[in-house]
């Protein structure tokens, strides 16, 4: 076994998808919409499959299909108020997942330290390890445990964050809106991270796949727009999240040409080029949305509006069931403290080490409702911080959210 794979194990996704296939629960685990994708997006793909231009079924440019990199360049030039060169400042990848991988493999060297904010999207740490880097973890902690808890109540300790940076630090990975908490980082919080990145000459890898899913008038701020941060930030997005087509596995990274070049090299030496029809369809989706960015009909505006209703519905039924949800400001997941239910159920029939794994497996098998155990999103030394929680996904049909609510009623 090569050194870089030592200690690797199948991820929570591989384990919980197998569990869902076996027990067929109502699945609020892995994050994906269970309703039809927007029709204009799927129609575009069908049209492309039948297009008279035969080249749409063949290989396209390795660093990104021209029409797509142009659309991405145009959109973010507008959002960032800075001209982005689609040829060398954008890379199209096989999902945001590959963009993360290319960014980490393309910049982290053996022995480099990478600061990871906990809980974290679970692949960050194994990817750092693959590159030979060393992850340094800092947890977001809830400042409130009673009353209405918002994702804004989960914060980093300023001094602790300052202490993470040193001369070996290569990169910090930021995720806003955050999976699984739903936190949308505020200007002040981003300013502190930016200041430390500049002080210690550190790169910021900003995972912004939920950039359009922000609620209650909160604002998604792109850290690359803060003063002197463009030069040191790689920002990642996902068509799967942006257009509700997670199976399309199409993502991107943008940033300054000298940083993106390293990602292009990793991409070239692993994936090389992504599926042409999917890129063409995503490009057409962006082109349409760019004509109506300020309109309520724009999918980037209608989706969060509809999601917010689902969020509120879920928060209520989790509360009614005796759980304590953290109300997310963004994204499509909700963390809930489930420990009030512990006296009503016996989760010890499950042999797992961590209580959130016991709880989610017991719920899948006995109540027919699946969630994700958040300790999967913590380092070994901090897994206990996730054990009282479960993560549920709320980008689901109303009928399924109602079904989840009914299943939980039985525990009252
Ligand atoms: N980052 C975060 C925070 C995510 O939740 C996801 C969801 N899979 C990804 C990256 C990967 O996105 P994609 O499906 O486009 O690879
Ligand atoms: N981002 C999704 C989630 O967090 C999907 C994760 C995955 O399949 N790797 O649930």
Q: How would you summarize this macromolecular structure in one to three sentences?
A:
The chain has 412 residues and is an alpha/beta fold.
As a whole number of angstroms, the C-alpha radius of gyration is 21 Å
Q: Tell me the distance between the termini.
A: 49 Å
User: Major sheet: order of its strands?
Assistant: 2-11-10-9-8-3-4
Q: How many helices does DSSP assign?
A: 13
Bound small molecules, deduplicated: 4'-deoxy-4'-aminopyridoxal-5'-phosphate, glutamine
Q: How much helical structure, as a percent, in the residues? A: 25-40%
For the sheet with most strands, the description reads: 7 strands, mixed
Structural class: alpha/beta
Q: How many strands in all?
A: 15
Q: Roughly what is the average pLDDT, rounded to an integer?
A: 97
Cα shape? globular
- Sequence of secondary-structure elements: HEHHEHEHEEEEHEHEEHEHHHEEHEEH
Low-confidence runs: none
Binned strand content:
15-25%
Subunit structure: Homodimer.
Catalytic activity: an S-substituted L-cysteine + H2O = a thiol + pyruvate + NH4(+)
GO molecular function, one term: kynurenine-oxoglutarate transaminase activity
Pfam family, one: Aminotran_1_2
